[in-house]
Write a structure and sequence with these properties.
Length: 253
């Protein structure tokens, strides 16, 4: 009798497990009018994307690539990622980061300095080029009818010689986004600044062994930092992509 009961219980447990595994739906809805662009902060582990999509309940189109820069490099630049994305379908919302690899890959030696000292002219030139590409990309998005742009900045890495460039880059990006927003009030242009949310003197606790990329916990924090202003500004809060009608002329302005 005990053996018979045990067999029934085991069968029920196996059946429940099979039912759970076999019937678990894909809980994320495809939302093709939202795209993510950027570099390895998104692309390497994709933890931040996973957390952000879990918060939204939607899956987005991904074009980010590890090693991507705003200008130059060996892989698609962030503007090139955008060109690919817009060619594959209309875009209502862009979530992106960018510009860090222009320093880390392209100009780390020129931009490394003691925190609090002036950046070199060669480093500032790189930042100028990033600013120019950023402004051009924002204008292209505007011409294509993008309604929401959420730009994630960078936290401090475990390399303190780059803290100063992180500050200067953030100050520039904040000013650029604020000016763009002021000139285009119909567009939500939001810069998300992670720096206040991470203690730079404890950078090794929120970066992986390379001292650059976010841990899983840091990725979750970053995802929440992106999601919070999306909620506050009613960005992709249950709106369907079916009703989105971009301008007919697209990027021809």
């Amino acid at each position: 009798m005990r053996k018979h009961i045990s067999t029934i219980v085991l069968a029920l447990l196996i059946g429940a497990l099979v039912a759970t595994l076999g019937c678990e739906p894909d809980s994320l809805e495809n939302k093709d009018c939202v795209v993510m662009l950027g570099d390895s902060i998104f692309a390497l582990s994709e933890d931040e994307t996973r957390f952000l999509e879990e918060l939204s309940g939607d899956s987005y189109r991904h074009y980010y690539v590890s090693g991507a820069q705003m200008t130059g490099g060996m892989v698609d630049t962030i503007p090139e990622q955008y060109e690919t994305a817009i060619a594959e379908g209309p875009i209502r919302t862009v979530v992106l980061d960018g510009g860090g690899n222009d320093v880390l890959i392209g100009a780390q030696a020129e931009c490394s300095t003691e925190y609090g000292t002036e950046l070199s002219q060669s480093c500032l030139q790189v930042l100028d080029e990033v600013s120019e590409e950023t402004e051009a990309l924002l204008e292209r998005m505007k011409a294509d009818g993008v309604q929401n742009i959420i730009w994630q900045g960078y936290y401090y890495t475990d390399n303190e010689t780059l803290w100063q460039v992180a500050d200067v880059s953030a100050e520039r990006a904040i000013a650029e986004m604020e000016e763009f927003q002021a000139n285009n009030p119909e567009i939500n242009a939001i810069y998300v600044d992670p720096r206040p949310h991470f203690d730079k003197y404890q950078a090794s606790s929120y970066t992986t062994m390379d001292g650059i990329h976010p841990t899983e916990g840091a990725s979750e924090t970053l995802a929440n930092l992106l999601w919070d202003p999306m909620v506050v500004n009613n960005i992709e809060q249950g709106q369907s992509c079916d009703d989105f009608q971009p301008p007919e002329n697209g990027g021809c302005n």
